Amino acid sequence: MSENKKTFKFYATLLGTKALIRGLKLVGKNATHVPGNKAVKICPDFLKQIDKPEYVIGITGTNGKTTVSNMVDDVLADTKLQFIDNRFGGNIESGVVSAFVKNSDMKGRMKKKYAVLELDERMTTRIFPHVKPRLLAVTNLFRDSYRRNAHSEYIFDILNSTIPAETKLILNGEDPLSSHLAENNKRVYFGIEDRSVYMDETENIIQDMTACPKCGTRLKYDYIRYNHIGRAKCPACDFSSPDHFDYAVEKIDTEKKRLYIRTPKGSFDIKLLGENITDVYNQITAVAILMEFKVSVKRITESFEKMEIAKSRFEETEVNGKRIIMNTAKGQNPVACSRVCDFIRKEEGNKAVVLVIDDYFDRKETSENIAWFFDTDFEFLNTPEVKQIVVGGRRHYDLKLRLLMAGIPEEKIACIEDDAKTAELVDLEAADKVYILYDVFTTDYFANPIKKRLIERATAGEFAVSDDYKKYIKTPGGSGKNAAVKNASVRGGASTDILSVNDKKNNAGSGKVIEVLYPEFCNLFGDSSNVKYLKQCLPGAEFRYTAFTDKPYFADHKPDLIYLGAMTERKQEMVAEKLLKYRDRLIALRDEGAAMLFTSNAIELLGKYIEKDDGSRIECLGLYDFSAKRNMMNRLNSLVRGFYGETELIGFKTQFSEATPLIPERLSFFKVDKGMGMNKESDLEGIHDKNLFATYMVGPFLVLNPDFTKDFLQNVMGVKEAAPAFDKLAHKAYKVRLKEFHDPKCAY
After folding, report:
1. Which residue of 259, 290, 400, 519 has the fewest C-beta atoms within 10 A of its own C-beta?
2. Read out DSSP for 534-576?
3. Mean pLDDT of residues grouped by 10 in the chain (748 residues)?
4. How far apart are CA 369 and CA 640, in angstroms?
């Protein structure tokens, strides 16, 4: 199908791109997105001009789209159908262009009628105006890659505004978010009806659908599978999950390795490819797509019998009684990583876990925003069967601190900067299974060498950690002078002073009340870690969590700290309206010296108004003379370094808005030496007025800045005996990051 007349530039670009594809093949490289990228740069409307396949199947969503696409491709290949795919071309616009060029003639006409395209959610703004899928499957929508994708509501809004009206949707009936996409389009739903795998309440840190998107009331879940995947209904309005599944998994039989499926064409069973619940969702999604495409049940069942999980995602090797398991954890994706941690905790036997999950590209070019560490459920690894966790990479101090915050005993954690050397630290005497968790981009650089070395050790019977590497492993009770002091204090010898100090620290914050506002949705970008860290710094304090539908504690009392974290733009508008009722009370509390901490876009609520893309305004508290302006198509990311007094602060920003005019310097939080202030032109950041602190910086701000945290605890909150939790480790991580931030080559 052709949209319009092709230009000379198009034909010239087409010929050049075909030549580039042939050249890449001659040197043994797959023609991935590179040729398509060149084509779009030379001819920006190339995708508009090239002919399109008559029937396009699109597959998108946060997690599972690659696996589902590969399943569909494999089954269709068995039917001998000739179709285009972008398996080796990438899921962005340039990848689609590469796939189309490879399958077109010299005039840009398609050689094949059908296409199966994996599609990046954000890139649909560039693809869907020209490529109209007949079928579009959306696996799910979660938080992913904060720097690029912001949050799940943002991705929902992109898809909701770009999905063509003629596209039939295949949606996850157990995702209360994505199941409501493009509600005027024809649709079918898939889901799991087997109630043997569910929870009454989520155990996950992230649950992006706790509050009704229409009225803000807390949703009631009939059940939850994980995160926000489950069946939900609002008790106050008509918002709810779909009441039926067109394609349903009725039973998961892990013993026989079978899935029993109900479809509009009848019921049948297929081979179960993996025992993780996400594997089941991937399979039922693929089945729904194939059946909507009119593939026969016989063909589907026969093809699934031949399938295995891709080795690039999961691979197991057994050597000398030790099972070494490679498992992709998908870096900067807290939900995907959490699913792997959940899978590991449910596996039988004694286990060791190797974590090499630093972002490969960030370590080369910048300093990684570790907010996603604090949204990942590493708590799932805190089980007796997980005997050891070995951490490698530049962020090893950060990750060790995160594991300690998850309650994992320090003696279980070994860490080393050299990723590949993690294999030397694994105690094969203690573990029968070793899980290597890695990002897909580090497979060849780190994961495979680690696997190779572990296989060598297991083959040679080198189960114990060698003397050269024992120094990286902390023994129970510690070692040396510190251990002697600790043991003396436990015995109650001459260490009563130490006991007294420890008692004070263990009771730090006693009598203090900390109010956390709207934690059910003001928790983006790892911001909930600030509260978790405060709880570990102030174990004696009382924490009050105020739900959106509840009256704030501060309305009638004076808490010692009011905390408000990051939220989506839609929730921000709801919170602004809610807090306006308490404007005078907040002013009075500020003037009385009550401590307040606002992070990320919560700072904007303190200004006069927020201007949306369409020019409309959201009234805010007006405590300070500034306003914020959104640009939802321009994500602003910045690493930030500056001075608060003599304390050097560091952190990250990821936002859609800028604030103007400037806050007076006397009311600013700190002066920026590197990165963006309240806007791109400003070197002033945040607000500091009496004991009110506000900053655009996101994520574990208090964790990243232990010196500021100490000052905040002792001098702002008045808890003189308090100290940052895991202080020495936090300072080690801080010093590494500070050095990176001072590197002129380190950008963001």
Report:
1. 519
2. HHHH-TTSEEEEE-TTSPPGGGTS--SEEEE----HHHHHHHH
3. 79 95 83 87 96 97 95 96 89 94 94 97 96 98 92 96 98 98 98 85 88 90 94 96 97 96 97 93 98 97 90 84 93 92 95 94 87 96 98 96 97 96 97 94 90 97 94 67 34 39 73 96 93 97 96 98 97 97 98 97 98 97 97 94 96 96 91 95 96 96 98 97 96 97 88
4. 11
Residue with tokens 């394609």: 247
Q: Where are the beta strands (DSSP E) in 27-77?
A: 55-60
Provide the sign of the torsion angle of the four alpha carbons 74, 76, 79, 83, taken in this order: negative
Two tokens, residue 342: 């959940």
Which helix (H) or strand (E) covers residue 250, if one does? strand 247-253
Q: Which residues of 709-729 are buried (b: 16+ CB within 10 A; e: fewer)?
A: bbebbeebbebebbbbbbeeb
Instruction: Report the C-alpha gap between 481 and 491 in whole angstroms.
Output: 15
Q: For residue 171, give the nearest of 183, 162, 161 by alpha carbon.
A: 183
CA distance 414 to 392: 9
Its pTM stands at: 0.91
- Are 173 and 189 within 8 A, CB to CB? yes
CA gap 229, 140 in Å, rounded = 9
